[in-house]
Target: Putative ribose-phosphate pyrophosphokinase
Amino acid sequence: MSAIILAFTDSMAAAGRLGTSLDLPVHQVAVRHFPDNEALVRIPTSAHTVILYRSLNDPDHKLIELLLAASAARDGGAQRVILIAPYLAYMRQDKAFHPGEAVSQKVIGGLLSSHFDALLTVDPHLHRVATLSQAIPGIPAISLSAAPLLTALIDAKDNPIIIGPDSESRQWTEAIAQPLGFETLIATKQRLGDRQVSLTIPEVERAKGRRVIIVDDMISSGRTLAEAAKLLRQAGATSIEAIATHCLARPDDLAFMAAHGIARIASSDSIDGPTSKAALAPLIAHALRDDGLV
Ligand code: R5P
Model:
């Protein structure tokens, strides 16, 4: 059975690493935009199994292009089309918080499961649903944890203290701190707006004179990390770093975090950028082989 990886310009580098790990050819999907911005997608070739690789940050146009590429792959003879979206969008809105709001997770999850035969992602941002299969129903939906890769990024000097900036980060904080025997502190967070959060860190005084590493699943505006850094600096932390699976932060958000004393940010390569330090390819390749998808 032949298999190929198809990737878009924005994910060619990471897809190339996956191709090397799986010893599979990687081809680029061509996208042309008409004057009204409608996309024309062209795939160079198809195969029995087509793996489409694309992270879904900045998701709206990427989703449409993915669906078009999946359709072209099937038209070209693909029997199985697998989506690898290391960062999966639209998982946060899993209920209508206010009257009239769309439940995005249900809509996008249903859309993806009707166009793909399997989906793989890394540390999806799930809140009130326990498993990825609830969000992506009806097809194999594989959720991987980047914690082992992120742990390997940590320089263990000075016995750092690991900080989780909200209660949901406890799972990543503990997965990273426990194997290394590091102490943890978990903050409580209240989100006041897209770019405004309020944090308290119980027992923050334990950070005095310590090197601290903040661990989260994702960095978006960077306000969560900046607020945590402010409290840790006030408590006397000597240096502040951050590690996250997904870093969606834009250059001005990275500058904002640096201005708040975060000396180093490291993330996986789910989104290519200056913080990407850990390649997900070996993890994804292992899972695809384990699940018999390639
Ligand atoms: C929230 O639940 C997540 O774990 C992150 O803490 C959050 O998405 C970070 O967002 P921002 O960087 O915009 O504060």
In short: Residues 165-166, 168-169, 197, 216-224 surround ribose-5-phosphate (CB under 6 Å).
